[in-house]
Amino acid sequence: MILEKKIEELKKYLQEKNYEKVILESKIVAKKFPDNLVILNFLGVAQNLNNQIEVSISTFKKILAIDNSQIQVQINLASAFKKNNQFREAIKLYLNLFTGEKNSIKYGIDLMNCYFSSKNFDRCTETCKKILSIDKNNFDALMKISETFYVKREYQKAINYLNLAKNIDEKNINVLTLLAVVYFDISEYKKSENLYKLILSLSNKSSDYYYIYNNLGLLYEEQGNIKEAENNFIIGLDMRPDDEILNRSFALLLIKNNKIKESIQYLKKGGDRCKSHLLKAYYELDLRKEYNNLLDSIIIDNPFSMRIASITEFASEQNNMINKYPLCPNNISLLRHLNIDKELNIENFSYEKLLIECQTKELIWEPKESNTVGGYQTFGDIFSMNLPNINILKANIERAIKKYKSEISLKNKTLFTEHWPKEMYFKSWLVDLQDGGWQASHIHSTGWLSGVFYIDIPLDITLDEGFIEFTKYGETSKPKKISEKKIINPKQGDLVLFPASLFHRTHPFKSKKNRICIGFDLMPEEEIIFKNKMI
Question: Which domain CATH number covers 445?
Fold first, then answer.
């Protein structure tokens, strides 16, 4: 009776959102009844709701160690993992909870969201389709699969699903906005513009949709109408002067038009994602005091940004300073070039069959926001496809990465080696460059270790055509003095590994044959990914 009364009290405190009282009382009761699962679950729930997420995870794990059949505790643990951005752990639980029956759809929704957040877009798509096979009008699944196909650059599929969502709610702002964004990406600018104007017309109070002026600004900027772009950014900023996205968009427009000094006031309001641009602006304006003060604060807040690492590497070289950003100083020294053709051939590997397997992914010509010119690129993870030659290649790349890590760790005691990913999760894609194709200089700001494997290289190219070049600066930076660079002439079977902060580009080439490779990133630990807002 005493225990039952205490449970009722805990329920009351929980309903009153008095989480600290629940925690305190649960701990007292748990001393008398240490294995009482109901009390421990109250404790875990209160800890979670009180933002003591790590502690709540430990509590829920303790319960499941006593009895792993507790479904509600599995649900609570999955929710805590999700809240803590531990999506891979949450996925393991939601996979069991989503049985494919109608009453489990809510766990399917959680599962698809976890896949999306962890950038596993193929699994997200599969989960959405499974939900829609149970409930064809599930709005959440229709929106998420649309968003996923948009991210994967499968634009027509995104449009098809958005139209299904629109049939359910034709004035839904999220549907109309994403549809406008898709049309923007496929250069159907008038359709995009009309949808944004429709959204503004749906409310008497257009300030509710201030972000639409940001999107219109980007739309006009893409078409070269700089004046109209500025006007829309300014309209949005008049409504929301401190909005980070609007400040960032306007600042980047100013930078693109060489108004770096004018951009600073907006960069300062642009949030974490603008800190890399602000740091670069201070470097380019030679404001060394401001540069160092900002860098010192970034080192404390986020020492894991590959974009910051790339800026500080170049600025330090050009200004004859020590690079004090601790992630990956002297990144070009960690570039490695090897050939794994012999290792592959031992396992009856076929380049031709590998290419066929990779091309089951949709190839997109010169995709927006990529650096590919004169060629195709896939989206969605190549290595996640369970196909024979892809599996052989992935296993050999994993072995090569382990050797790479062991070798560089002997002399390189930096955050790059000390916080190396415990598990190998990849993001990978095919790049198929045609005659005259090339790739602009870029880094992989969301990766940890980047790499390229070469499937086919034209034999009739001359000089440095088709070479891959590594530098400490990108397309928008101009060295004040000679900057270190390395150039590699790749061959079939070559594997190149390098820190994701290292700039690289592909030289143009002339040939009747295509230059085909797989690019990939070894992804950071989830904790780093979701703490890193400076990408």
Answer: 2.60.120.620
As given in the structure block, the two tokens for residue 357 are 């397997």
DSSP conformation class of 458: -
Cα–Cα distance, 487 to 413 (Å, whole number): 26
Query: Helix (H, G, I), strand (E, B), or coil: what is residue 473?
Result: coil
pLDDT in the model for residue 535: 46
User: Any bridge partners for residue 471, and if so which?
Assistant: 485, 503
Q: Is the pLDDT of residue 533 over 70?
A: no
What is the number of residues in the chain? 535
Tell whether 77 is covered by a domain. yes
Backbone phi, psi, residue 464, to 5° = -105, 25
Q: Which two tokens stand for residue 98?
A: 């989503």
DSSP state of 379: -
Secondary structure element (H or E) that encloses residue 318, with its range? helix 306-318
**Pick from 51, 84, 117: which residue ends a domain?**
84
pLDDT tens string 386-415: 999 999 999 999 999 999 999 999 988 899
pLDDT, residue 362, reads: 86
Nearest alpha-carbon partner for 122 in 362, 473, 302, 410:
362
Are the CB atoms for 522 and 424 separated by under 8 Å? yes
The domain that contains 66 carries what CATH number? 1.25.40.10
d(CA 379, CA 138): 26
Q: If we measure between CA atoms, which residue out of 365, 340, 332 comes closest to residue 473? A: 332
What residues pair up with 522 in beta bridges, in sequence order? 426, 449
- How much is the average pLDDT of 240-258? 97
Residue 146, token pair as written in the block: 């649309």
The per-residue pLDDT of the chain, averaged, comes to 94
Q: Which pLDDT score, from 0 to 100, does residue 206 have?
A: 66
Mean pLDDT of 249-259: 97
Rounded to whole angstroms, the Cα distance separating 252 from 83 reads: 32
Picking from 35, 61, 84, the residue at the C-terminal end of a domain is 84
- Which range marks the domain in which residue 13 is found? 2-84
pLDDT surpassing 80 at residue 204 = no
Round to whole Å and give the CA distance between 62 and 472.
49
What are the CA-CA distances from residue 376 to residues 59, 121, 151, 362 (Å)?
Answer: 49, 19, 16, 9
Q: Residue 476 burial (CB < 10 Å; 0-12/13-18/19+)?
A: exposed
For residue 446, the SS3 value is coil
- Sequence-distant (6+) residues with CB within 8 A of 82 are 90, 110, 113, 114
Look at residue 100 in the predicted model and tell me its pLDDT: 84
For residue 28, the tally of other CB atoms under 10 A from its CB is 11
Structural domain total, the chain: 2
